[in-house]
Amino acid sequence: MDGSESLERIPKLWFPDGSVVLEAENKHFRVHKGVIAAHSSVFKDMFESLPPAGDEERVEGCAVIHLANPAESVQHFLMAIYDASFFEPPPSHTTLSIVQAIARLSYQYEVKFLLRRALAHLETHCPLTLDGWKTRGITSTLLEKPSRGLDLVSKKLEVVHTIYLVKALWLLPAAMYDLCLDDIKDIVKNTQWDECNIGGLQDLCIFAWTEHSRMLHVHFSSMLSSILAQRCAARLSCLQAALYSACEWPLERRSRCAHTSARQYFDLVCTELCKDCPRALLEGMEIVTNEFWKAMPHNYGMSSWDELKIKRAAMFA
């Protein structure tokens, strides 16, 4: 008896000719040292530091290495190494849980090709451009079951945590923006913080949410200032309609998404304006919303988009 009978062997990752057994939680994976070491310098060092035969735990003659990672994450990570079709780059689809597992483990074990692939998927979910955000529902490669309330906030926090953990900071503004669309109470009281409050991340999220709220007020005020067309024939009437609509628009009905709230306001007020002002409002909305996105990293307490794009280029070089 070697004590391994109670552990589950994963058939797709239990190779009879495997030379090492990886153990994570209650699961065993019998894999090949050469295959894993070829992709991971961290595992290569682990294998080279194994004690001589007879001095360590063995399963069917193979040395056992205990991993502190979740078993499901290890399974996704190993499947991505052994089976190219399991985790293909965009535009192929995958799931958020698989991407996050592979991103975290490929960063920890220094498997660069998998990390880049995971980050490419995350970038479809957390784009660097406002146009990318607007089309995210179509272009995102991450398939997830619909969720609401605290479950949705938990998933968003997991994304923020993963990005922060693997230092893919160019993805953080959009991830924070997504999180800031939710109620601050659901963010602060979320149980996900038990696992992901590293390096002051919770403070950063609260700061970002506060600044996001301030930016929305500035954004809305800037829109109002651009509402009148230069050739407006009824300036007083249009201005009164704009201000009245703004005052009568309940805060709780306004989206915390900048371009969505702009569109909501346009739909609310456009029928009350003269024939020239709706076009002026649309143009002003576009300018102001782009400025909102451009200033977002700085206002969230991060580097500028240009600096973040340099970090991205270094990762994919």
Secondary structure topology:
Layout: E1 8-14, E2 20-24, E3 27-31, H1 33-39, H2 41-48, E4 58-59, E5 62-67, H3 71-82, E6 94-95, H4 96-108, H5 112-125, H6 130-134, H7 136-139, E7 142-143, H8 149-165, H9 172-179, H10 184-188, H11 193-196, H12 201-225, H13 235-248, H14 258-269, H15 277-299, H16 305-316
Parallel strand pairs: 1-3, 2-5, 6-7
Antiparallel strand pairs: 2-3, 4-5
Helix pairs in contact: 1-2, 3-4, 4-5, 4-8, 8-9, 12-15, 14-15
Helix content: 55-70%
Low-confidence stretches: none
Instruction: Please state the overall shape, judged from the principal axes of the Cα atoms.
Output: elongated
Radius of gyration: 25 Å
pLDDT average, as an integer?
A: 90
Our estimate of the beta-strand percent is 5-15%
Name the helix and strand elements from N-terminus to C-terminus, one letter apiece: EEEHHEEHEHHHHEHHHHHHHHH
The end-to-end distance, rounded to whole angstroms, is: 50 Å
Total DSSP E strands: 7
Structural class estimated from helices and strands: alpha/beta
User: DSSP helix count?
Assistant: 16
For the report, how would you describe the main beta sheet?
A: 5 strands, mixed
Strand line-up across the major sheet: 1-3-2-5-4
Main attributes?
single chain; 16 helices; elongated; 317 residues; five-stranded mixed sheet; alpha/beta
